[in-house]
Amino acid sequence: MIHQSSVASSQAEQAIAARIAAAMPTLTPIHRRMGEYVLANLFRAATMRIDELASVVGASVATANRFARALGFDGYPQFREALVRGFEATLAPVERLRSAQESLAAGDDVVDASLEQAASNLHLTRTAIDSAAAEAVVEAILAARRVFVLGAGTSAFLAGLMEHNLMAYHDNVQSLAFIGGPSHAARRLFNCDKGDLVIGIAFPRYVDDTIELARRAATRGATRACAHRRSALAARAIRRPVVVCAFRTPACGERGRGRSRGDRSAVRRGCVSRQTLGEGGRRSHRIRPAVAYRSALRVGVGEYGRAGGRRCCRKTSHCQSPTQTQTMNTNAVIAIHGGAGTILRASLTPSAEAEYHAALHAVLSAGQRVLADGGSALDAVSEAVRLLEDCPLFNAGRGAVYTAAGTHELDAAIMDGSTLEAGAVCCVKRVRNPVLAARSVLERSEHVLFTGEGAESFAAAQGLEFVEPAYFDTEARHRQWLLARDQQRAMLDHDGASLAASSSSSSTAAQEPTPHEPIDPNRKFGTVGAVALDRHGHVAAATSTGGVTNKQLGRVGDTPLIGAGCYADDATCAVSTTGSGEMFMRMVAAYDVAAQMAYRNVSLHDAAHDVVMNRLPKIDGRGGLIAVDARGNIALPFNTEGMYRGFARVGETPVTAIYR
C-alpha cells in the first residue's frame, strides 16, 4: 500500500506539472507566478484553499480561479481535486482537522468535552498521588510560618489556584507567580526564614528555574515541596523537605527583616518570628501572631528617634517616643510623619502641642480602621495621606506653601510593595488630593509619573475631585510667602512663620495669628507620608507635599520620585521620607534603605539609621524617614531635633510623638 500510494502521488505530481508546463507560454505574468509557486510546492498547494493560494502569491480569488481554467479545469475545485489525487492518505488527517475547526460546536458539546477532559485530568492526578507524600506536604503546610507558592509560565495559573485554596487553611500564603517570572520570584524569596515553606510547581520549560530557586532558598533554611511532571523527583522532594528560602535573621528585638510577598491586586500577607511564637506552638497559635506581626511591621515602631529616646508626651494617645527600632509581633500597623526639623519648645504652648498630637492621632485612627477592616496597606496609606492633605497644619494639600508666583504646586507618590507598581504626580494645582491622583496613576495607567497639566487631565478623566486654587490658601502660609518674597529667598515648608509672627505686632489685630508650631517653621521640612503593613504581610508607602515656600515654578523635589521620597517592596520594606529634597534625590534615600537590606542583609534599623545618620549628613542632607518591613519592625530615624510622627497597631492605642 505504501508503494501504491507513492506511485499515485508521483503520477499526480507529473500530471499537474505537465499541464502547467504546457500552459506556461500563454499564461499572464500573475498566472505564471502562481504556476511557479505550485510547481515548487505541490504538496503544500494541495492543502490550500483558493483564498490561501491567492494570498500567498499576492493575487485575487478570481485570478486564482482563472488560473485553474487556464490549465484546462472547470475551476479551482477541480484543479485542487487533481492536485490532491494521490495525496489522499497523507491529507486525510489535515482535512478532518480543518472540518473540525470550521464546524460550529454546540454549547453543550463544548461543556461536555471540557468536563470530560477535567474528569480525566483529576483521575490521572488521583492515581499518581503518593498518599504518604501528600500527608507530609499537608503537615509541612500547617507547620509553616509562611507558605510561598512558586510557579512560572503555564504553572503560574496553578500556583494562583493553590494560593487561593490554601488560604482557607493557612493565614499566610503568598503566590510568587507574577509577570516578572523567575527573576521576580528570586527577589521575593531572598529574605525567607527558617520555618517558611516553598511549594514549587513547574512544567518542562521552567523546571530548571524552579528547582534552582528552591535549592537556593534551601540554603537559607526554609522547607520546600516541588511538584512537576517528573513525579519521582517531586515525591522525593516532598518526603525529604529541604530548607529552601530563608535568610537567618535575628529574632524579635534584634533586628528587622523585610520580606513578605504578594501580588499587587491579591491578598496581603504577614509573618512572625519563631522566637515570638515558640517552637512548639500549634498552628492556630502560630497563624494569628503571624498576621498581627506583619501588620505591626508596617506601622513600625522602630526609630521614632534615636536609640534610647525618651518619653515626651502624655500617657494616653501621644505617649512615648519609641526607640529607634522596636520589633512588633501582633497586629497590622500604620506609621505616619508630618515633617522634621528644629524644636521650638520655648514658644510651644500645651494647647498648640495638643493640636498636633490630636491631628496625628485622628489620621492614625483612620488608617488603623482600614487595616482592622481587612483593608490593604495601599488603602491604609492612601487614606492616611489624604487626611494629612486635608489638614492645614501640614504642608500638603490644603495649607500648602506658596511658589514664587504666589500659587501652589503639589506633588505626591504612592507605591505598592506587593507588585512594585507605583504612581506619582507633580506640579498639580487644582487636584484636591494629589495622593489619590497618584494612586489612580498606579492603578489605571501604564505610566508612573504625570506632571502639570497632563497630571490634571489624567486626574479629571478618573473623576477625581478638583477645587479652585484658593482652596489651598491659608493666611499663615500667605504671610510666610510674603516674608520670603521680600527677602528674595526660598524657605522650607512653613518658613517665615515665626518671623512673620514677630514682625506683625503692629497689625496683629487685623491678621489671623500665625500658629506656634512645635517644630521651628524656619527649619522644618514639609512633607507628609505614611507606611503600612496589612494583615497579609504586604507593605505600601505614600508621600505628599506642597514643596518649599517661594520655590521657582516647576521645581520638583524628592516626594514624587520613586526611590527618593517613596519606595515599597515586600521583599525589604516600605519607606516615606521628609527632608531636604535635593539631597534625598541625590542619595536616592528611600531606595537606599531597601537596597541595603537586600544586598547587605542588614536589618531595617541598621539600614535606615545608616541612610539618615551617616550617608545623608555627608552631603548636608537633613530630615528623616519612616519605614516598616514585612516582619513588623519599624524605623523612624531623623537627624533633626524633632519629627511629627506616630504609629498605630490594630487593637492598640495610637502613639504619637514630636521630640526625640
TrEMBL record:
Keywords: Autocatalytic cleavage, DNA-binding, Glycolysis, Hydrolase, Protease, Transcription, Transcription regulation. PROSITE patterns: HTH_RPIR. Residues 254-266, 514-523 have a biased composition (Basic and acidic residues). The active site is at T527. Substrate binds at R555, V556, G557, D558, T578, G579, S580, G581. The keyword Protease applies. It comes from the Bacteria. The keyword Glycosyltransferase does not apply. It holds the Pfam family Asparaginase_2. SUPFAM superfamilies: Homeodomain-like (SSF46689), N-terminal nucleophile aminohydrolases (Ntn hydrolases) (SSF56235), SIS domain (SSF53697). GO terms for molecular function: DNA binding; hydrolase activity, acting on carbon-nitrogen (but not peptide) bonds, in linear amides; peptidase activity. The record marks G526, T527 as: Cleavage. GO terms for biological process: glycolytic process; proteolysis. Residues 497-510 have a biased composition (Low complexity). Residues 254-279, 496-524 are annotated as: Disordered. CDD domains: Asparaginase_2 (cd04701), SIS_RpiR (cd05013). Residues 14-90 form the HTH rpiR-type domain. InterPro entries: Homeodomain-like_sf, HTH_RpiR, Ntn_hydrolases_N, Peptidase_T2, RpiR-like_SIS, SIS_dom, SIS_dom_sf, WH-like_DNA-bd_sf. This is Isoaspartyl peptidase. It comes from Paraburkholderia graminis.
